């Protein structure tokens, strides 16, 4: 009887110890959704019942401080790389690279040259290089072959494809275990924000439609039995500011357009002077209007993180919020725009997140958009590449006992493994010692030499 108890105890200790070392949590699955141009305060300015229910089910960041320039392509690439524009290389919606002698244009959908994207490695590429699979429905850049990689599953960009179809494909991929990371993009409310301006009462209809689409997404995830196991993060690239015909600055009044090429447009205007005309163009533009600031590239404020890249042009003009810069009034004018200083609240989106990894009904005031990338890497259990964000800045969004991500810090991983093995061995030895000490002499089994040999490696651990 005593011998049976002894060996059962030894077996239990060994199993417990082995299980402690080998236990591996199921990998988290993540869906990131971007509603382009969804300003942070739309949820309080307009009726948004589905957003409010989503907020109650998870964590809510009221304002996300995005990067400069606050435009679509730079900020979407920041969300998936954690880098400022000068570091990831997608510095604007319209770019010219003097080294490549190539142009990148969102307007003409001339965006498919991999060289414009390969200053960084987006998360879907890293996810796949670590042996997982990614899926994307229209997220900017996901239909470009970046570092020779496409997402495992993706839809080529086509703005006519309905939101419902995009959602259906992602659910199909998740339910088929074809992906663990999904990226979903929708063009609104950005398009109507440009057309109407965010202060137009008619924007209520647009926001109501976006709210209904979020409700549709949640309902479909519940029907597919994904809602309780999937971490869903809803955010945006930028906000929107109201413009006015009374706040237009016409460059043709001050400078001959033959002296320069306008690369990117209002409210952050990128100017490429003709050869030898840099100083002449700068002097013609600087201090001509109190509501715009003209910088030579080397003078751009450090806080913009917007000077260390060849695609940033020699002269950058930044309009004050609500002001519009045109060559003349025959150029296209928009009633709402973005691109302004990234510290302006008008430019900020929100972030809401719901799922097993996140707190419920939790709100904080702010975060940086660069922090989303390390958070995603943590959830996906992949190693983040060097970035400008910090996981520590957003850990409070996670549930009280977030799943560990040992790949966040390889040194910490090695140290933790060593401590785990060491303590596990000590615990087994201590329990074994106490157990044997309390046995009566008659209960102690006769230990032969072979048993000592079995025990010896455990004593040396």
Describe the protein.
The protein has 13 helices and 18 strands. It is of the alpha/beta class. The chain folds into three domains: 2-22 and 411-460; 29-83 and 120-241 and 342-403, 3-Layer(aba) Sandwich (Alkaline Phosphatase, subunit A); 248-337, 2-Layer Sandwich (Gyrase A, domain 2). The strands form five sheets. An eight-stranded mixed β-sheet has the order 6-5-7-1-8-17-2-18, with helices on both faces. It has a four-stranded antiparallel β-sheet with strand order 11-12-14-13. Strands 3-4 form a two-stranded antiparallel ribbon. A hairpin with a 4-residue loop joins strand 3 and strand 4 (102-105). Mean pLDDT is 86; it is low at 1-25 and 401-461.
């Amino acid at each position: 009887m005593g011998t049976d108890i002894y060996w059962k105890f030894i077996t239990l200790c060994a199993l417990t110890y082995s299980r402690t070392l080998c236990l591996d949590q199921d990998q988290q699955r993540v869906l990131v959704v971007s509603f382009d141009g969804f300003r942070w305060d739309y949820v309080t300015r307009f009726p948004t019942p589905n957003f409010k229910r989503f907020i109650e089910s998870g964590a809510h960041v009221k304002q996300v401080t995005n990067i400069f320039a606050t435009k679509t392509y730079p900020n979407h690439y920041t969300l998936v790389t954690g880098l400022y524009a000068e570091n990831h290389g997608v510095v604007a919606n319209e770019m010219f690279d003097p080294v490549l002698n190539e142009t990148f244009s969102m307007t003409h959908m001339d965006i498919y040259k991999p060289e414009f994207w390969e200053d960084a490695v987006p998360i879907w590429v890293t996810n796949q290089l670590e042996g997982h699979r990614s899926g994307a429905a229209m997220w900017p850049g996901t239909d470009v072959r970046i570092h020779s990689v496409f997402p495992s599953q993706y839809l080529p960009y086509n703005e006519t494809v309905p939101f419902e179809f995009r959602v259906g494909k992602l659910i199909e991929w998740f339910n088929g275990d074809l992906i663990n990371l999904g990226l979903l993009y929708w063009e609104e409310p950005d398009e109507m924000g440009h057309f109407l301006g965010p202060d137009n009462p008619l924007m209520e209809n647009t926001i109501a439609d976006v709210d209904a689409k979020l409700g549709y997404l949640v309902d479909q995830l519940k029907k597919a039995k994904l809602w309780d196991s999937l971490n869903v993060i809803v955010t945006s690239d930028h906000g929107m500011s109201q413009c006015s015909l009374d706040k237009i600055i016409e460059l043709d009044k001050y400078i001959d357009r033959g002296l320069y090429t306008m690369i990117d447009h209002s409210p952050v205007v990128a100017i490429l002077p003709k050869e030898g005309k840099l100083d002449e163009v700068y002097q013609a533009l600087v201090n001509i209007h109190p509501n715009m600031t003209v910088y030579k590239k080397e003078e751009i404020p450090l806080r913009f993180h917007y000077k260390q890249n060849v695609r940033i042009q020699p002269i950058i003009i930044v309009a004050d919020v609500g002001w519009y810069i045109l060559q003349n009034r025959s150029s296209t004018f928009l009633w709402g725009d973005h691109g302004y200083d990234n510290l302006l609240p008008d430019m900020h989106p929100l972030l809401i997140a719901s799922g097993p990894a996140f707190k419920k009904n939790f709100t904080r005031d702010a975060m940086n958009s660069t922090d989303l990338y390390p958070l995603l890497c943590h959830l996906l259990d992949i190693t983040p590449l060097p970035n400008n964000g910090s996981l520590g800045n957003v850990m409070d969004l996670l549930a009280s006992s977030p799943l560990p991500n040992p790949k966040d810090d390889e040194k910490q991983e090695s140290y933790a493994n060593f401590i785990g093995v060491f303590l596990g061995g000590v615990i087994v030895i201590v329990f074994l010692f106490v157990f044997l000490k309390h046995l009566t002499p008659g209960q102690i089994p006769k230990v032969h030499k072979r048993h000592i040999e079995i025990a010896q490696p455990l004593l040396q651990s």
